[in-house]
Write a structure and sequence with these properties.
Rossmann fold, single chain, disordered C terminus, six-stranded mixed β-sheet, alpha/beta, twelve-stranded mixed β-sheet
């Protein structure tokens, strides 16, 4: 169960279990039926990233998993900042923090208590330090850049959506960059794409491309009831590290969100804590798209002990990230429609974060009450797939790579999933193998 607790303050999520729900039954042409689980060690955050020992001595935890190009985490002292007046951006950030501070402190109490009660959070943790987990070197961004040189001719006869079969000989020749790809089955599939093995959730659809190659998504003609966006926001640390590319805020206005939105579409945007980014989305981006801002939620990140991963009042980074929610209002939209499911102004989403860089928890479970049944859902700038969702990004299948999962074999391996009965009860408990 991925939603462990829900109350008037928000939700406590088990993000890893939410991923696993999509892989309860998998099928491979070569080995038949099996079950996948996302490696729980990526969510084994035992200690805070930063622990305050004094106002000038900040210690970085050694237990943060060394994945996705994190800097070498060593104990080090922060440079003392000279006393000076705060600039406007810092004043705005301070004001916003004071606005949400009480929500974080009070709202998290009951959710964390529920986490201890159900065993999601615990003080009984091993004292042995975790070994560093290996990471897959993702080449998807480079492949998207390479594909741009080849996709110069528009093909009106191109198939808008191609089914990924799971047969390596057939799937290896797919063009993943100029049309949508889909696992049409009611079970997860192991597939070979570009020479690598991936696990695709049931009925998941994706487009692997960058910002300049969105045409196949638009030309599909689909209108979505929910659009979640997690843009690569521009900031100084990203520029210094060159860990991943960023997108200037002005470019976000060019995203075809209005074209892709159905009437009353719920638009959800992950935003960094920088005041200029929050102001840009509130005052420029959402109005430009015709989206009315309705709520500002927070994702609060905690350790397995329930501690905030960062000091709440740290002047630099915070233990929470902001999620802005609004409704797309078309000119001919029924004004009563937006009142059908009122979006709460403030809510907390509490969970243990993944140690993988930019691996956000899925919001599908908490957003379900605010969209219609059987809604069409789209994630933009995605790095993973979800059942019954369409996903787009230049790393859209990054976290579907087999190296992030463990597997458990199922009996009746010679049968296809549609021929297997009670598959969930046929697990061989001692056959978990790390891929």
């Amino acid at each position: 169960m991925s939603v462990l607790c829900a109350n008037e303050s928000g939700w406590l999520l088990d993000a890893c279990s939410l991923i696993d729900e999509d892989f309860r039954l998998c099928y491979s042409v070569t080995r038949g039926n099996f079950r996948c689980r996302f490696n729980k060690r990526y969510f084994d955050i035992v200690k805070p990233y930063i622990v305050d020992k004094s106002s000038s001595d900040v210690t970085i935890s050694h237990d943060l998993l060394n994945t996705e190009g994190h800097d070498d985490l060593r104990t080090r002292k922060k440079r003392k900042r000279r006393r000076c007046d705060l600039n406007q951006g810092e004043l705005d950030a301070q004001a916003y923090h004071e606005k949400v501070r009480l929500l974080v402190l009070e709202g998290s109490q009951t959710l964390l208590k529920a986490g201890y009660h159900c065993g999601y959070l615990t003080d009984a943790l091993p004292t042995v330090e975790n070994k560093h987990l290996p990471t897959h070197e993702c080449q998807l961004v480079a492949l998207c850049d390479m594909a741009k040189t080849l996709l110069t001719v528009e093909n009106s006869d191109a198939v808008p959506v191609q089914d990924v079969t799971g047969h390596s000989g057939l799937d290896s020749g797919f063009d993943l960059f100029s049309c949508l790809s889909e696992n049409p089955h009611d079970y997860a599939s192991e597939v070979t794409l570009m020479g690598e093995r991936y696990f695709l959730p049931p009925r998941s659809r994706f487009l692997l491309s960058d910002f300049t190659r969105l045409q196949p998504l638009v030309q599909s003609g689909d209108k979505y009831d929910l659009i979640v966006l997690d843009p690569p926001w521009e900031n100084k640390s990203v520029k210094r590290s060159s860990r991943y590319s960023f997108l200037p805020s002005s470019c976000l206005k060019k995203l075809p969100v209005p074209t892709l939105s159905a009437a009353g579409c719920l638009v959800v945007m992950w935003v960094t804590n920088r005041s200029r980014h929050l102001k840009f989305v509130r005052e420029e981006l959402f109005p430009h798209w015709g989206v009315k801002l309705l709520g500002e939620w927070l994702w609060l990140k905690v350790t397995r002990k329930g501690d905030f991963v960062l000091p709440l009042d740290s002047p630099h980074k915070k233990p929470y990230e902001v999620i802005l929610l609004g409704r797309f209002c078309a000119k001919n939209d029924d004004p009563k429609r937006s009142e059908e499911c009122e979006i709460p102004n403030q809510r907390l989403i509490v969970s243990i974060p993944s140690a993988l860089h930019s691996h956000k928890p899925s919001l599908s479970a908490v957003l379900k009450p605010y969209i219609r049944p059987n809604a069409k859902c789209l994630e933009m700038f995605a790095r993973s797939l979800q059942t019954d969702w369409t996903s787009w990004g230049n790393e859209v299948i990054k976290f579907q790579h087999h190296s992030y999962f463990t597997t458990e074999s199922l009996k009746c391996e010679s049968k296809t999933p549609t021929e297997t009965t009670d598959a969930d009860q046929q697990i061989e408990p001692e056959t978990a193998v790390s891929l």
